[in-house]
Sequence to fold (576 residues):
Amino acid sequence: MSEPQRGIYGVDLGTTYSVVGYIDETGRPAVTRNSDGQDTTPSVVYFESEDNIVVGKVAKESAGVYPDQVVSLIKREMGDREWRREFFGKEYTPPSISALILSALAKDAGANTGRPVNEVVITVPAYFGLLEKDATRQAGEIAGLKVIGIVPEPVAAALHYGVTGSADGTTFLVYDLGGGTFDISLIRMTDKSVEVLAVGGDHKLGGADWDEKLFDHILDQLIEQWGDESVRDDEAELQALRTIAEQTKKDLSKAESKTIIRRYTGTSAKFIVTRKQFEEMTAELLEETIRISNRTLDEAEQRYPGVRDQISELLLVGGSCWMPAVAERLRKEFRWEPRLTDPDLAVAKGAALYAAGQTVRYAEADEVAPQTGSGTAAAGASGRGTGLAAAAPVSEAAVREVADRTGIDEEKVRGIAQRTVVNVLPKAVGVKLIDTTKPDWERDPEAASYIEHLIDAQTQVPCGPETLVANTVVANQSGVEIEIWEQAGASPSRDLAANHRVDDAGLIEGLTPFALPASSPINIQISVDAEGTVLLHAVEPRSGKDLTMNVRISVLSQEQVEEAKEIHRGLTIGTS
Fold:
């Protein structure tokens, strides 16, 4: 393989399974195979020893024997600053565990393609907030990868569908039901842009929940025939039954029934599970996706009147969409015919296409850097980092370089790189205030606190500045403490419990000499850029003292990232 065709990769870092996409020798998006020869790798990590980590199929199979040494569904914990696990005396966080998965994927992808894995685009659910997105970026950094983009999964899927067919002027509804997360996204696509209009979802709802319902049913049926409750404490047998449940779910997507035969402590059991039974026991899960979809469409209709009538494509993404009930229920609820094409691999392939576009921007930055004398300045000007693609013409030299590297036709490279991606803010962002009308607020200010959202969910980014005039709470206040908070739940709420703080507090200090009366104004502005960085500027007008907070919302501090990288470098990581 020629040296110019170095690797450009897109990683679908899934909750239950992960896939790596790349651009093959013919210039088409494809997926790599792991060491087992499979397209998909279970997103499961087995801490076999202090310095040996196993990811994938073997890790998943080890869950029954060594449950305390196996981690799965870690994607559901991304953004949780409190989640910690210790293995062999070393502490791991969601980003550092996800980094283990990324390293194993990169190792297998490099071996499969013969192209080293350095630069990657990683996909995230559309409904991931700023914390979860940055946790994903940090996972890539810990793994030693250069993350050139974080792209929403439905955007990647739409890019894949748009390249494989005509998408000019198409408005997609992307229904993404993966193994651990559900997203619904409304996307308008032209030959020049991918514009996200609205997103909704639940990052703790996915195929794993269908598996669990079926597992419970299978376990109950077996216990009834075995007459032995002790199996509930047998981790190895329970893991085997979970594997059976997952495979039964897949089989029921093709067959009307599946016979389960299982022997335990010398007693055999046999029974039949039908597709109808399975659909009945999981109907409430499917209905929840419909409820979220309708809510998201209603929100979109408020912002873009008539947008429902513009939808012409309903794309099904995610392996759980193979269940026949999904398309049937969507067909019944909506007038669009569901389109199921490559749902397991579309996101990874689209991410590879997006990566090719980002790489053009990198090539441009390398052209500009010598002229500016600063590689960093050039990178900032050209959109390096984790943001979405810039809307600007691309240089022919950069297009040729990437075409040579990837084998993609120059015209297609140019089209991908020039396609603008406009995302939305999935969660509302605001500041913490105190309601001084509440009784006893001075005794318990936390109980009287609430979140005032300045920028609403579903706002396209970059956005702002949005302005709020807040007030001091007591006379002669010496300073003002300001905290940035982000909506945590599916719907915005002013309650503290429905939001999470995303930064360390900033302070405006030294106000005492100005003898400010109570309720003196503090002017606050918040903006969010295309990369998800929140910019807050607050001013006390009488003194002129101000505060600027430029916050890239992060789960881990840079010091914690460096510590995790040090641990990571000392590990042997593989899928077998």
Summary: The longest strand covers residues 193-202. The CA atoms of residues 58 and 489 lie 35 Å apart. The first helix runs from residue 57 to 62. The chain has a mean pLDDT of 87.
